Amino acid sequence: MITEAAQPEAYDADHFSRTTLILGRRAGDAARGKAQHRSFRVLIIAGAATCSSRAGQAAVLTAVATAVRAFSEVAVSLDAPGQTVLGGPYAGMRLGDTVASEGANLVDSSSGTPRHVIVIGNTPAGLRPERHWIAATWSGWTASTGPTAQKLQAAASINPADGDPVGARCGENNCVAAVAAGALAVAETFFVLMREEESVGVARQVCLNLWLAGSATERGPAMAYAPSQWWLLGLGHLGQGYAHVISWLDYANPSSVQVVLQDTQRAVQANHSTGVLTPADPQNQRKTRIVAAALDRCGLETVIVERRMHAQTPVGEEDMHVALVGVDNLPTRRLIDQIGWKTAIDVGLGAGVRDFDGMTVRRLPGQPSATVPAWQDEPKPNRSDTVDMDAPGLDACGIAELNGVAVGASFVGVIAGAVAVAEATRVLHGGGAYSVMCRDLRDDESDAAPTASYEPPVAARLR
After folding, report:
1. Which CATH number fits domain 29-209: 2.40.128, 2.60.40, 3.40.50, 2.30.170?
2. pLDDT, tens only, 63-92
3. What is the spatial distance between Cα 49 and Cα 53, in angstroms, rounded to a whole number?
4. Which CATH superfamily, name and number, covers 225-461?
């Protein structure tokens, strides 16, 4: 007979962290996953120069927002916490105040630092990083992470006549790359913590090139334009990642930029762990209203659509929206190229604990959406009593389900958002387009198939 004390801990799917559940499913026990998650602590450090630039703030606040959703305790040391936030969901607030509002602890210095530290941007003068510290840097259209000590040595050895190596210094204002860098550093820290039991606790060099997939050297031109109209379909894990990235684009005339927000769901507490814009207590708000509030603060025009997408959804000839699709409803995805969008970019995430960090980005029109092989069969969730690490059931927000409960991490959605926004924006600067692009964050592997068949979106100038 099983006593009450011996019974497994019960939890409510509407309240249980989807990121904690990754660890629970990996361990085969939710309580063990929660215990491991409680040991995940990190310090984020940013110098005065990083705190003062729009791109630097984008990287810092992305790291903070994704870290509080991935770790149990996050401390933040800012050399200039009084700076006004220049963009993003907290535009107009003091930088230090945003840290507290996200649930992190603002600290005065790096004394008594935890083992895991993220340094955002250029390493502050006088700081002596340890070998396991992770640096988040960006250069042009590239985002990179690696051991802070190595980044510091690379920056110190730069000869101005030779140019700036990728990721060595962060002097450019490409906010999409900066957002990606902040989220990538959190992802790498999370993976290091997951690997510590395997005695692999040292950061590695990782580069995410948003200009030329797979390149470690091409930085691309200055980002001067972005699409003038967006349509975000699905505002969960992926949709909020898209919106977060768009909120940091420095439009010269933001009120002329329209963002359509389409979703039918209300947010629950568990959505905070994966939705980068969802508050810790969303109070049953509609996801459209949460995202609209964040984008309204940036001065963008938002249009709310709270009904399901179907073949009769009106998209007129005059509409030039770039659609960013963040649903895993297969019938809806099969309709994408019938809606009338000139450009649609769909992102699909991995379907299990082992590949929750994998993403596939698909540009449409291209291959007819009704014939995409991966979108043909509705996956059947595993309902056995045995924990299935890769149960393939999917929910409407594009996050893998495990035995009926979804798992995910906000840093994956934000990185996917940066990749999708870059895909829409790159062609406005003479860059190439990709029909399909795949990336695995943990294995740091990527593959892409270029296409010459696309219609550039209507551009709006950035500052």
Report:
1. 3.40.50
2. 999 999 999 999 999 999 999 999 999 999
3. 7
4. NAD(P)-binding Rossmann-like Domain (3.40.50.720)
Residues recorded for the chain: 463
Range with the poorest average pLDDT among 1-5, 111-115, 205-209: 1-5
The reply to whether 225-461 shares the fold of 29-209 is: yes
Ordered by start, the domain boundaries in the chain are 29-209, 225-461
Asked if 95 contacts 129 with a C-beta cutoff of 8 angstroms, the reply is no
- The pLDDT of residue 149 is 63
Inter-residue contact 259 to 304 (CB < 8 Å)? no
Query: What pLDDT was estimated at residue 378?
Result: 60
User: HSE on the CB side for 10, CA within 13 Å?
Assistant: 4
Distances, alpha carbon 230 to alpha carbons 81, 126, 319, 442, in Å: 32, 43, 10, 30
Find the DSSP H helices in 207-316.
237-247, 287-296
* DSSP notation for 114-175: -S-EEEESSPPTT----TT-EEEEEETTEEEEEEHHHHHHHHHT--GGG---TTT---S--H
Beginning with the edge strand found earlier in the chain, give each strand of the sheet holding 229-233 in spatial order: 301-305, 258-262, 229-233, 322-325, 343-349, 358-364, 433-440, 445-451
pTM of structure: 0.89
Handedness of CA 387, 388, 393, 395 (dihedral sign): positive
Tokens of 321: 């929206």
Q: Between the CA of residue 343 and those of 325, 337, 413, 436, what are the distances in Å? A: 11, 9, 20, 14
Tokens 């969730």 map to which residue? 381
